[in-house]
Amino acid sequence: MHPVTKFLHSWRGRLRRGSSAAPAAASHAISAQDLLCVEEVSAADFLAGALFRRKFHVPPPDFPIHFVSFYRAAPADVSVIGYVHFSEFEDSYLCGGLVIDDRLYRRMPIAHREAIRNAGGIAEHLLRAGFARLAHAAAIWGYVGDTRAERVDERVGFRRTDHPYVMVCWMRELSEADKRARLSRVIALGAF
């Protein structure tokens, strides 16, 4: 079964079991969990390639780890709305390539935009899901130069470092000397 088909069957199965109501249901308030679902995927270019190319003008990385955020406007209307990439580095991960489909977001019904915004937004939802699945790491590193992106990154746990563009989310307790040594190795990588 194709990964996308498997994912859609899984999501519909959760709906049938009652873990989440369809967005069109008028019996309850719509939540971000009704509208968004993040999945780790192997077919990043197939699923999020067009979105990634629109922002970065290159295809998404062809090596793991890829997380895609899906938006469900209606039970049979599912679209890719976000993407982020994580690369393994030592016992940590480098986070990059975060992109959100702002055109799709602007076309959403107002109630959907409000529900997603009230839950922190698509980028925050996507990063939190990725972090939860990579919780075994010592750290997750980000290379950020956009003020809006920095605010989202800080909400999910990233902290500024001595480097103007490198941020880090420490996932476990480490000594200050270990943190400084790790930061030096990440800075030596350059932009990621």
Write the layout of secondary structure elements.
Elements lengths: L2 H14 L15 H4 E6 L2 H13 L9 E9 L2 E13 L2 E9 L1 H6 L2 H9 L3 H12 L5 E5 L3 H10 L2 E2 L5 E5 L5 H14 L3
Please describe what this structure looks like.
A 7-stranded mixed sheet has the order 1-2-3-4-5-7-6, sandwiched between helices. The protein has helices spanning 3-16, 32-35, 44-56, 102-107, 110-118, 122-133, 147-156, 176-189; strands at residues 36-41, 66-74, 77-89, 92-100, 139-143, 159-160, 166-170. Strand 6 (159-160) and strand 7 (166-170) form a beta hairpin. The chain contains 8 helices and 7 strands, in the order H-H-E-H-E-E-E-H-H-H-E-H-E-E-H. It has one domain (3-189): 3-Layer(aba) Sandwich (Aminopeptidase), CATH 3.40.630. The two termini are 33 Å apart. Helix 6 packs across helix 7 (147-156). Helices cover 43% and strands 26% of the residues. The relative contact order is 0.12.
Give a short summary of the structure.
By secondary structure, the protein is of the alpha+beta class. It contains eight helices and seven strands, in the order ααβαβββαααβαββα. α6 packs across α7 (147-156).
Keyword list:
192 residues, alpha+beta, Aminopeptidase, 7 strands, 43% helix, 26% strand, globular
In order across it, which strands form the biggest sheet? Answer: 1-2-3-4-5-7-6
Computed Rg: 17 Å
Give start-end ranges of low-pLDDT stretches.
14-27
Please work out how many helical segments DSSP would assign.
8
Report strand %.
25-35%
CATH superfamily: Gcn5-related N-acetyltransferase (GNAT)
What is the overall silhouette?
globular
Number of domains: 1
Distance between the termini: 33 Å
User: What would the average pLDDT be, to the nearest integer?
Assistant: 89
By CATH, the topology is: Aminopeptidase
> What series of H and E elements makes up the topology?
HHEHEEEHHHEHEEH
Helix content: 40-55%
Largest sheet: 7 strands, mixed
CATH class: Alpha Beta
Question: How many extended strands?
Answer: 7
